[in-house]
């Protein structure tokens, strides 16, 4: 089979090829950053509760970014919004390079959240990816990009932990800046806009009216909003401070966190493409249900077991959760919403999740301080049971 035929099978043509290269370059730095950012914040003197407040700021600015980028991407185009999101992420890392003072930590929190690209899909980019491929291969397209990201993270995560211990955090920050800069240049030069001029010229809606519209769920997907609201609060409470509490409670090193992140990323990366292709064949709901099962198994493992090898094992199971979820979820939303409203709808529904997450890290920090490591995870478990009831009773 030729290289071109493999590219077609994996939807790696045009914009998808650009995103594949950009993702590879960018994640060389960010694959390390995801591992070390919470330990770094703690080492600046911030407490676990303070770390929760910083994560809450990230969630607030992410919700705002999702609304703004979703609105703008349907008006001025997908490409400029995608570039602006990555530029915000560049500014966020630059703030950490400049100073450890609390003001710069808050600048980091705002811009990394507002980018809507920190453990989150920017609605402009998501719409651009969705519109760059045929509708029958959307799940595959999203899974390919996620696979590239996760496999790159697999290589870099453990390296990031080792570098943080032996050389400090600065080399990781600089590598992030270089990767983001090169990625921005590549996307500026090679990405093609997918929002057609007639769509841009359609009747305009005022920004305030659009923001009001974000308070009302899209017709026909109210249950999906409910699922994301519950999941947002649950994951935000249980996992927002996960690495930070592992360091504080069990004394895990950055290298051990890197190994855990490597296990998670390898699991997600290797399973992403076959699961994405399977999603395009068997449908979305079975994949979402499988995601819930993986989430439940991994969460119970984190609650019951205490040793590092056990955490490493359940990180592998945890990696299958988003591997099943992301391509099915993105394809499901893309099918239900017209193209001219797709970016706004993606931003709107993800913003609902982020709004639910706003108090969650702060609450998780308080629960941890009061009752220990398992308390935030217990709240997550309750939310997972509720979201499972909503998901399993949903019609295909």
Please describe what this structure looks like.
With 396 residues, this protein is mainly α. It is globular, with a radius of gyration of 20 Å. 81% of the residues lie in helices and 0% in strands.
What's the short story on this structure?
This protein is mainly alpha-helical and 396 residues long.
Based on secondary structure, the structural category is mainly alpha
Average predicted local confidence, pLDDT? 85
Distinct helical segment count = 18
- What is the alpha-carbon Rg in Å? 20 Å
Beta percentage is under 5%
How many individual β-strands? 0
Helix content: over 70%
Q: Low-confidence spans: pLDDT under 50, at least 5 residues?
A: 199-203
Spell out the helices and strands N to C.
HHHHHHHHHHHHHHHHHH
Apparent shape: globular
Largest sheet: none
Distance between the termini: 35 Å
What brief labels describe this structure?
mainly alpha
Write the layout of secondary structure elements.
Layout: H1 3-9, H2 15-43, H3 48-73, H4 78-98, H5 102-114, H6 123-131, H7 138-167, H8 170-190, H9 197-200, H10 207-213, H11 222-239, H12 242-250, H13 254-282, H14 285-304, H15 308-336, H16 342-357, H17 360-371, H18 374-392
Helix pairs in contact: 2-7, 2-8, 2-13, 3-5, 3-16, 3-17, 4-5, 4-6, 4-8, 6-16, 7-13, 7-15, 11-16, 11-17, 11-18, 13-15, 14-15, 14-18, 17-18
């Amino acid at each position: 089979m030729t290289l071109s035929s493999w590219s077609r099978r994996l939807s790696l043509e045009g914009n998808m090829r650009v995103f594949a290269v950009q993702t590879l370059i960018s994640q060389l730095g960010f694959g390390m950053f995801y591992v070390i950012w919470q330990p770094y914040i703690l080492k600046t003197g911030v407490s676990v509760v303070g770390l929760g407040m910083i994560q809450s700021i990230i969630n607030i600015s992410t919700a705002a970014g999702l609304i703004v980028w979703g609105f703008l991407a349907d008006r001025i185009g997908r490409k400029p919004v995608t570039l602006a999101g990555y530029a915000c992420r560049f500014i966020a890392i630059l703030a950490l390079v400049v100073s450890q003072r609390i003001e710069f930590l808050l600048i980091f929190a705002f811009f990394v959240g507002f980018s809507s690209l920190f453990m989150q899909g920017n609605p402009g980019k998501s719409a651009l990816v969705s519109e760059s491929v045929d509708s029958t291969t959307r799940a595959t397209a999203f899974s390919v990009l996620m696979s590239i990201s996760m496999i790159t993270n697999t290589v870099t995560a453990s390296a990031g932990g080792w570098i943080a211990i032996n050389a400090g955090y600065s080399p990781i920050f600089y590598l992030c800046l270089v990767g983001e800069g090169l990625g921005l240049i590549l996307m500026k030069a090679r990405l093609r806009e997918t929002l057609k001029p007639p769509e841009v010229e359609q009747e305009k809606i005022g920004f305030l009216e659009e923001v009001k519209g974000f308070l009302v769920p899209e017709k026909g997907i109210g249950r999906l909003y409910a699922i994301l609201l519950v999941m947002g609060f649950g994951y935000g409470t249980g996992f927002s401070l996960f690495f930070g509490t592992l360091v504080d409670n069990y004394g895990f090193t950055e290298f051990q966190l890197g190994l855990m992140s490597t296990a998670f990323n390898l699991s997600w990366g290797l399973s992403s493409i076959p699961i994405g292709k399977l999603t395009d064949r068997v449908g979305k709901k079975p994949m979402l249900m499988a995601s819930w099962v993986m989430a439940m198994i991994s969460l119970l493992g984190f609650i019951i077991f205490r040793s590092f090898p056990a955490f490493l094992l359940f990180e592998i199971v945890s990696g299958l959760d988003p591997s099943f979820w992301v391509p099915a979820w993105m394809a499901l939303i893309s099918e239900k919403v017209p193209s001219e409203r797709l970016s706004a709808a993606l931003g709107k529904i993800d913003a609902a999740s982020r709004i639910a997450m706003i108090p969650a890290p702060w609450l998780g920090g308080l629960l941890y301080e009061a009752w220990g490591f398992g308390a935030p995870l217990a709240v997550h478990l309750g939310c997972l049971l509720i979201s499972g009831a909503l998901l399993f009773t949903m019609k295909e």
